[in-house]
Amino acid sequence: MKKWNTLAPLTLSLFFLYSFASKDLGDAATEPGDIVGVWMPSEGTAYVRIFKEKGKEVYHGKIVWLKEPNDAEGNPRKDDQGNPILNMLNLRDFVFEDDEWVNGTIYDPKTGNTYYCTIEMVNKNKLEVRGSLDPFGIVGRTDTWVRMKTN
Questions:
Q1: Which of 71, 77, 84, 121 is surrounded by the fewest CB atoms within 10 Å?
Q2: Rounded Cα gap, residues 24 and 20, in angstroms
Q3: E strand segments, 5-139
Q4: CATH fold of 28-147, please?
């Protein structure tokens, strides 16, 4: 029993140390403008350019590349409402609070649905984008986006 009393605190300490160290915080603290750039969602079928709205501390995202930009007839791919997907604004109205971008929405052109959304930066080249049915983020899913290198 003495061995367990000695090993348990050590094991727990190592576990918490590993958990903290394994979270890649990047090179520095997150800043509001760190999100600006071109990002690829995990499916790899689109790129989204996230930008800051001029004169405001609000961020949006626009689909700037599609793996398959045209439908079977060669026409630009559209959502269910007939809107072209390429150059579509699908991220709207994000503000930076407590190291994440909140109070925004994400539009899914595949389903035609708009969801509440938050974005958290894992590191300078990786985002966790959470779309949810509720404003608290309880019922939803998280997707990992990676930064694309642009010239």
A1: 71
A2: 9
A3: 37-40, 46-52, 59-66, 89-97, 100-108, 113-123, 126-132
A4: Lipocalin (2.40.128)
